[in-house]
Amino acid sequence: MQASRSSKSAADSPCDTSAQQCQDFEASAASNTPQLTFFYDGQCPLCMKEIRMLNRWNTSASVAFVNLLSTEAMIAFPEVDIDDAQKSLLAFTSDGATLRGVDATYAVWAALGKGHWMAPLNWRWLRPITLLAYRVFARYRHQLALLLTGQRRCASCELPAPPANKTDLKN
């Protein structure tokens, strides 16, 4: 990633201006260089469940997953305010754009070729609801994790290496 990143707002995301840009973003994910650096809460059981699933699909290394709570990993990103990033998902695109919340979620799924599953997040009539729902989820994710998993936080949530090829996905 570049040392300095432009500070684009969610409105500048590659996925909420046109369907063509979203398709272009998904298509560009086929290259071997990370299209996206995605930051996650490594102590959130619900977050880790999704990150593990996404990581299994990351066979072409199109996404670099970074645990916000890993001191070693975060040294490479001194511009990231960890407290702020804990409040809303954060991702950097390879061209330097900063994505947050719903836009970061859509971007990671799109980079892994699964954007069509998250397309409703950007439907014009549904977007205000998804933005509100995301804010509620982000704020109460640890309480929801306790309710759904029995754990508010996991002490040591590890992210395994992604499979080397698609045949590894069957295991």
Automatic annotation (TrEMBL):
Superkingdom in the source lineage: Bacteria
The record's annotation in SUPFAM superfamilies points to: Thioredoxin-like (SSF52833)
Q: Which InterPro entries match?
A: DCC1-like, DCC1_Trx, Thioredoxin-like_sf
Q: What is this protein called?
A: Thiol-disulfide oxidoreductase DCC family protein
